[in-house]
Design a protein that fits this description.
The chain is built from 15 helices and no strands. By secondary structure, it is mainly α. The protein has one domain (about 5-365): Na+/H+ antiporter like fold (Up-down Bundle), CATH 1.20.1530. The chain starts with 5 loop residues before the first helix and ends with a helix. It comes from Paenibacillus xylanilyticus. One of its GO terms (biological process) is regulation of gene expression. InterPro entries: AbrB_dup (IPR017516), AbrB_fam (IPR007820).
Length: about 375
């Protein structure tokens, strides 16, 4: 994290206090994922309602994601990787169906509103917030503000709705650690040493290498790869993380997400907010239907299948998988496959498509002006 000026440091301390207060309150009222939802809600309300001068450095969010990446890497054992490879065809099918639903939603929305189809499509595809915003920045014809708002609204709604779906009678998720193969709740800070003195710097190095290579979600993917390789190639102990450290990582991520929604930057606010909410609800409903199919095809638990298909951030879905003892390797496998597929395949296809559409539009403009 860069050195902060005195005023920025005060804003950060204020933000940290707001986030901790949110986490404590949501813990007290027994809300699911309290240290993710609490800071997110309080930072959102603090910045948009109370108008507090809040700020949260992106680097803190990144290291929160790194902690989650380490934890996911522990679940990627040889057996788990074989299971993921076995399900690759289904991962491709489910990803294509989810992207198809996003495309259909964007097309219908473009016919019912004044917004253009390319902007709506990029705003709807769940390929990672930073990746989709970066794609929008590269294409001059795309409405960047609309894309950002649609992506952030989807992410926030999923982070809110999925925990309550997990604990609904249909899913029946429960808290507890007795069935967790990594024993996360039983782990203590003392158990991390001395191995963490080696693994910590290796995970940081892995994250920075992944970032230099322009990997999607580099601060998660880098540590995941590092810990997976260590487990597969050595006999060294890989200590699980204590629950308190995972709570800290949730606060680091949730605080950042809460500050991302800025409705004051929108034009046609009512129409945009309505569109963002309705498209997010439709996407969540579609994911719920696909998770039902996945659950029966592979005999997965309802929680595992829902978190595998939920179009949210990989870090948030993995945190929820920890909380309800879902199969973390399966959840991270499906989420990672979708992110990589969208990043490497879909993004390239969208660039080609939008470039072609832009050229055709320019040709029509020239033809109209010369005739």
């Amino acid at each position: 994290m860069h050195r902060l000026s005195p005023s920025a440091f005060f804003r950060f301390i204020l933000s940290l206090g707001v986030s901790i207060l949110g986490g404590l309150l949501f813990t007290a009222i027994h809300t699911p994922i309290p240290w993710l939802l609490g800071p997110m809600v309080f930072m959102l309300l603090g910045s948009q309602v109370a108008k507090l001068p809040l700020m949260w450095p992106t680097s803190i969010r990144d290291y929160g994601i790194l902690i989650v990446g380490y934890s996911i890497g522990l679940t990627l054992t040889e057996d788990a990787l074989e299971n993921i490879l076995h399900q690759l065809p289904m991962m491709l099918l489910m990803t294509m169906l989810l992207i198809g639903l996003c495309t259909l939603t964007a097309y219908i929305a473009s016919k019912l509103t004044d917004f253009d189809f390319p902007s709506l499509l990029v705003g709807s595809i769940p390929g990672g917030l930073s990746q989709m915003v970066s794609l929008a920045e590269e294409m001059k014809s795309i409405n960047l503000t609309l894309v950002t708002f649609l992506q952030v609204t989807r992410l926030i709604m999923i982070v809110f709705c999925v925990p309550f779906l997990l604990f609904s009678p249909w899913i029946g998720g429960t808290l507890g650690a007795s069935t967790d193969p990594q024993g996360i709740e039983a782990a203590t800070w003392i158990d991390l040493f001395p191995e963490i003195l080696l693994y910590g710097p290796l995970c940081v190095a892995g994250a920075w290498v992944a970032r230099r290579l322009r990997f999607p979600t580099a601060f998660m993917l880098g540590p995941m790869i590092v810990m997976c390789v260590i487990q597969l190639t050595t006999t060294m102990d890989t200590p699980p993380l204590p629950s308190s450290l995972l709570n800290i990582s949730q606060l680091m991520i949730g605080s950042h997400v809460g500050l991302m929604l800025r409705p004051q930057q929108l034009q046609r606010k009512a129409q945009t907010i309505t569109l963002a909410v309705l498209s997010s609800v439709l996407l969540i409903a579609g994911s719920l239907g696909l998770s039902y199919v996945l659950m029966h095809l592979y005999s997965l638990t309802a929680a595992t299948s829902l978190l595998s298909m939920a179009p949210g951030g990989m870090d948030q879905m993995s945190i929820m998988a920890h909380e309800v003892n879902a199969n973390l390797s399966v959840v991270s496998g499906y989420q990672l496959f979708r992110i990589l597929f969208i990043f490497f395949i879909v993004s390239s296809l969208l660039k080609l498509l939008f470039t072609h559409l832009l050229k055709r539009q320019e040709e029509r403009t020239r033809t109209t002006s010369t005739s």
